[in-house]
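Inputs:
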Amino acid sequence: MRSVGPVRIIGPVLDDELFIPLATYESPLWPSVERGARVTAAAGGIRTVIHDDRMTRSVLFEAPDAETASAAIHEIRTRMADLAAVAEAGSRYTKFLDMHDQVVGNLLFLRLEMHTGDASGHNMVTAGADRVVQWVLDTFPSLQYVSVSGNYCSDKKPTAVNAILGRGKSVIAETLIPEKLCSRFLKTTPHSVAELNTKKNLIGTMIAGGIRTANAHYANILLGFYLATGQDAANIVEGSQGITYATVRDGALYFSCTIPNIIVGTVGAGKNLPFVSENLERLGCTVDRPAGDNARRLAAICGAAILCGELSLLAALTNQGELMEAHTRLERG
Amino acid sequence: MRSVGPVRIIGPVLDDELFIPLATYESPLWPSVERGARVTAAAGGIRTVIHDDRMTRSVLFEAPDAETASAAIHEIRTRMADLAAVAEAGSRYTKFLDMHDQVVGNLLFLRLEMHTGDASGHNMVTAGADRVVQWVLDTFPSLQYVSVSGNYCSDKKPTAVNAILGRGKSVIAETLIPEKLCSRFLKTTPHSVAELNTKKNLIGTMIAGGIRTANAHYANILLGFYLATGQDAANIVEGSQGITYATVRDGALYFSCTIPNIIVGTVGAGKNLPFVSENLERLGCTVDRPAGDNARRLAAICGAAILCGELSLLAALTNQGELMEAHTRLERG
Amino acid sequence: MRSVGPVRIIGPVLDDELFIPLATYESPLWPSVERGARVTAAAGGIRTVIHDDRMTRSVLFEAPDAETASAAIHEIRTRMADLAAVAEAGSRYTKFLDMHDQVVGNLLFLRLEMHTGDASGHNMVTAGADRVVQWVLDTFPSLQYVSVSGNYCSDKKPTAVNAILGRGKSVIAETLIPEKLCSRFLKTTPHSVAELNTKKNLIGTMIAGGIRTANAHYANILLGFYLATGQDAANIVEGSQGITYATVRDGALYFSCTIPNIIVGTVGAGKNLPFVSENLERLGCTVDRPAGDNARRLAAICGAAILCGELSLLAALTNQGELMEAHTRLERG
Amino acid sequence: MRSVGPVRIIGPVLDDELFIPLATYESPLWPSVERGARVTAAAGGIRTVIHDDRMTRSVLFEAPDAETASAAIHEIRTRMADLAAVAEAGSRYTKFLDMHDQVVGNLLFLRLEMHTGDASGHNMVTAGADRVVQWVLDTFPSLQYVSVSGNYCSDKKPTAVNAILGRGKSVIAETLIPEKLCSRFLKTTPHSVAELNTKKNLIGTMIAGGIRTANAHYANILLGFYLATGQDAANIVEGSQGITYATVRDGALYFSCTIPNIIVGTVGAGKNLPFVSENLERLGCTVDRPAGDNARRLAAICGAAILCGELSLLAALTNQGELMEAHTRLERG
C-alpha cells in the first residue's frame, strides 16, 4: 500500500489536496495515478459531483400466474408508504427511496432502493428486504417466496440495471487540462487523448460486447482504493462499469470519468482495521457530518483517483511503446 | 485470511483434498465456502476441467480507409507464422496461438492470443503486442499506430468477447449431490436449488441486462482467492462472468460452475510475498511440472472454491431468512 | 399474407377466438403458429396481461460541466408538472408519464415517457420532445441543444433500457398444456420443452452475449404480425427482446412469453391501407373504446401469436430432424 | 415501395449509380435516404468493402459430464475435414468454413460456419447442421441430442457473437464529404456530425445498455431494403447491430457505417415474387457471376443505402426542430 498525491479535489463535501492510499500488488499503478495527480493539480484540480446515492436489493416471488403477479405489483405501487415503513423498521439509518419491478411469466422481482447512511449498505438492504419479503407474503397469500436476492439488484455482476436505476454513489469527476500542461506532464496532446478515448474506450469496448462501460482501467484503481479503505472489493465488478468522455474544448482537454456505481462506506465490516481507520481519517472521512456525507466524500475522492489513473494511462497509450517501457522500468526498479 | 476445507478436487492436474486460502474483509464467506466443501467432499468431490488456456492483448491501428484496413487483415492472416515469430521473440514462455480481428470504418483491431506458461501473462502479451505493433507498422506503411491496447482484449472489463474467444483459463467445475446429502448439509432439495438457479441466476441476471453471466456470487470467492494467491485481483471483473447450471438427475443435484476467464499465475508480480508463496506451496502449485501446469492446477482449485461458495449460497437462499440470519450471527460472533 | 387460427385468447380487453393475420415470405411460419393455436385452444386458451404501456424519446443536451448538468436535472425533477404540461401541449392524446435521466460528463440525457393513446406514438413523443427541448433551453440558458433523440430512448436498437424502464406495451402471454395434449399436438413432453427452453433460450442466448432476450424466434412472428397490421416493423428489433419461461407444473407444461416492448397502434401511418384496416377490424381493434384500449388489445393478440409460434418451434426442436423435415416439406409443397 | 437515388457506389463487385428500392410504411424514409444519395454522389460516391461472408447454425448436445463434453470438442477439432465433408454432403453450394464451440457444465454447443453461395443460407446451414448432428451422435455415443439450434447461432437475436465470429456479410461503407457539400446538402458541418455521432450513437447507445451497436436508425433502412428485395426481414434484428464512426479529416467529414451482419440472398424463398426479381435485376444482382458474388453485390448496395439514410438523419438531428418539421411536412404532404 502506498499513498499517492497530493490530488487536488473540489466537490460538494470537499475542497482539498489529499494523499490517496492505494493497496495493490501491481506497483506501476502508483506512479501512474501520481502523474494524473500532478497534471490535474497543476490545471486547477478535479471537480467532482455526486449525482445519486442509493443501495439496492431485489426480492423474488412466484405467483400462480402472470395476471396475479402483475396485479400484486400494481397494488404494491399504491402502497409505497407501507412498504417504506416495513423496509425501514428497526434501522435508524435505512431510508426507503423507491421500488422498481419486473414480471417474467409468473415470476415477480421487486428492486428495493434505500439510503444507507455512511454504510455501504449490503446488510442494511438485505435486512430491509427480509422484512419486505415477509410483508409481501402476508399481504398477498397467493405469492410464494423464491429468493431474498433475485439478481436484479445486481450485486457484483456486470449488468445494465445498476447504472440505469442506480446502485451505490454515482460520481462524475472532470478536469480541464490546457494543451501546455498536457504536453509537459503527459507528453501528449488534448486531441490525441480525445481521439484515443473514442477509438479505444468507446468503440473498442463496444465491439468487445461490453455492457455500459467504456474506460481503460477503472478496475485497477478501484481495487486499490477499495482494499485500502476497507471496502468489499468484489464491488469493483459493477464499480468499474463507467464511461470516460474526453473532448477538445478551446484547445484544452476536457476529461471526465462517469462512475455510476461506486459502493463505499466509512462504517461497517472492515472499517475497524487499524490501517483502514487511519486511511479514512487522513482522507477526512470520519468527521462529524450529516449521515451519508462521509461516505459521499469518500466516493468523490475515489472518483478523483480514478480520473488520475485513467488520464495517465490513456496519455501513455498515445505514445507507442511507453506503456511497456514504464512497466519494465518500474517492476524491475 | 483463512483457509477453508478440506475441498476434495479431481481434475487433470490434481486429485486432492486441499485447504483453500481466502483473503476477505467479509467473514461470512469462509463458513459459506466451508459448507460447500463439506457437502461436495461427502458426495465424492468436485470434478474440474480446463477447457482452454490463453492470454490476450488487442492492438489498434488506423488505415486511410476501410479497404486498406480489410486488405491488411487479410494479408496478415496469410502470414501467421511471421506474426507468431514476432510475438514470441525474446520470450521463452510466450507461445502465439491465434489472432482475431475487427474492422470499424478505417480502424482495425487485432486480438492476439498467446500461451504464457505459469504467468498470468499481462506483461508477456503486452510485450508481444508491442513487437507486433512495430512489425505491422513496418509491413504496412499506410497504417498508423493508435494503441497497444484497443479494449478488444478485454482486460478487466465486462464484455462478451473474452468468453467467446477465450481469455485466461476456462474452468468447468461440477459435482453430483444426492438428495440425502443436500438435505443433511444444505437443508434444501436438489429441485429447490435447480429451480432457484433458473429463476435467479439465469432469468434474474438476464432481466438486469447482464452480459454473459449467470451466478450468485462468483466475485466474492474469486476476490478472496486472488488476494490470497497474489493475483491481480482486478481481473475478477471478467473472471466473475460465469454460468451456474444446475439440474436434477435421477433425484440428485447436478451442479456446475462454468468460469471461462480465470486469470491466475504461479510466477510473477505478487508471488514473492511470503504468505503468497506459502499458500501456493500448500496448494501444490510450485512443483516442478511442464510449463503452465502449475497455473492450470491453481485455476482448477479456484474453480472448485467457487463451486463450494456458489452452492452454499444458493442453498441458503432457498430458505427464507437464512442468509440474513447467518450474516447477523457470523458478523457479531 | 395468411390468417392462422383460431387462437383462443383471454385478457383484459379480449376473450375471443381469432384468426391472426401474418405477412411473411417464410411460409413455414403459418403452419407453425397454427399448431400452437390448436394446442393452446384445446388446453383452454392463452391468457394475456398488459403490464405496462408507454412510449419514449430521449433528448440530449450539453452543459458547461457535470455540476451544471446534474443541478439542471435535479431542478427539472422538482418541476415535473411543468414538464408534463409542456410535453402534452397541443396534443389531445399525449399524456406525460415519467422522466428518467443520465449524466455522462457534461452531457445530459432526459428520457421522456408518455401515453400515446391508440397510436404507436413515435411522432407524438418526438413532437412532445421537441417542445421539451425548447422549454429546457429557455429554462436553463447554460445548456445547449445536442439532439432531440439521444439513443437512450431507445428506438429500434437492442438495449437493456427499454425493458427496464418500459417502451411500448409490456405483454405477458401464458398457457398451461396438459401432458396428454403436449403429446397429441406437439409430439413432445412438458419436461422436454421446459428443459430445452433452459438450455437453448436461457443458456444458449446468454453465452452468445445476448442482451435481455431469451427466445427461439419471436422476431419471425412479430415481423409477420407488424407487417399485416400496418406497424413500423423496424420495431421488431426491441420487440423481439423477450423471455420464454417454461416449467413443469403438476405434470403439465406452464409456458409463458414475456414481451416487454411490443410497439403497435391502431391509428397512424400505414393503418389506412385497405388490407390493414380490414385486418384491424377483423381483430376487433377498431371498436369504440377508451383511448388506448384498441392498441392494447392488438398488443395482447400479438403476444398470443408469439406464444403460439414459440411453443410450436420449441416442441419441434425437441425431436431430432423435425425442423428441417418440416421446412423441406412446406417449402416444396 | 419507392426507388431512391441514384446512389453512387464503388466496391469489389460494383462501380455504379443505382436506384435503390425501399419498401416501407414510413414515407419520410425515402427523402431521407435520397438526400444521403445526393450528397455522397456529389462527393464522389460511397466506397464499400465486404470484409467477411458466412452463415451459421449452432447445434446443442448434452454429455454425461463436462469432461466428456470438453474431450468431445477437442477431438472434433482434430477432425475438421470429416466435419466439413459431413456438413457439405448433398449440397453443391455449401462450403464449410469453421467451427467454434462453447461448454457450459455438461452442455456443448458447436457453432458451424458455412459459405452458402448466393442464398442467404438459413436452410442450407440447418440442413448441414442436421447432418452434423447425426455424425456427432454416431461418433460420440455418450452424447445426446438437445437441439439443432442452440441460440449460439444466433438467428434474429441481438447478441455479441454474430459480429465477433461472423454471420452474414460484413459490410463497411464509407465516404468523405467536403465541408462545402456538408453545408450545401445537409445544412450542417463535419464537426457537428462527428460530435453528434460520439454523443448520441456511441455514448447514448452505451448508457442504454446497447450491445455491439451504435447507430441512429440502420433498422429502418434495412427493413425497407430487405422487404423490397425479398429477404427474410426478421434478420434486421442482428443486421441493425452496426457502428457508425465519423471524424473530421482535413476539414472534411469522414463518415462510415460498419454493418457486420447483413443477411441477404439473390436466390431462395421470396426471390421469385415479380417485384422482387425485378428489383434484383435492376440492381444488377442476377448476372452470371461466381457463386456468392451476386449476393455480396446486393449486400454492398444495402450497406450504401444504410449510409445514405444514417448520414441524412444525423445531419438533420444536428439542427434543432428539423426532424419533426420534416416528418410533419412529409406525412401530411
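The first strand of chain D starts at residue 2 and ends at 11. Flag for discussion at group meeting.
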